[in-house]
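ok so i was messing around last nite and threw this chain in just to see what happens. nothing serious, just curious
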Amino acid sequence: MMINTNYAEIVANAKARNATYVSFDKAVAPINAITAEKDTFTLSDRAIAKMNGSDFGEPAPTYINPKTAREFLTENTASTRNDEESTQSSKFNTMMLSILDKRLGIDREKLEELDAMIKAIADDENMSPEEKQKTIEKLEELREKIIEESMDIQKEATQTFHDEE
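result:
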């Protein structure tokens, strides 16, 4: 059975007239076929060549290093997987370090500044090795002191919290 009535058009006409009901008994023009201007399709290169009366031939692919599809896919997925894993790993490490810093009360910015100073001193060619060693030791002591102070503050905060309960 073929439906010759366009019910969507009937409803649209009723809405346009602000009708309170729709009557499907009244005949509406049957569904029109798609006109040739609106109907499109795509011809393949082979079909176009046949229409023009010429032969169609695909050039044989040339390979510099022939590989099987499995080898190619394995290489691509391995490199993609390594990139994704390294990105996820670094994000995970950063997140875990941030959580640990918050729990211990450590100021990561101060520690990064000290690390940058240590690196700058280690790379400084104007200082003697003994001076470098002494300065780096002092900075390492300062670093440990900052960490200990942060941990003490966190312990006091935890004790205060538990005392209030």
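not much to say yet. The CA atoms of residues 111 and 157 lie 21 Å apart.
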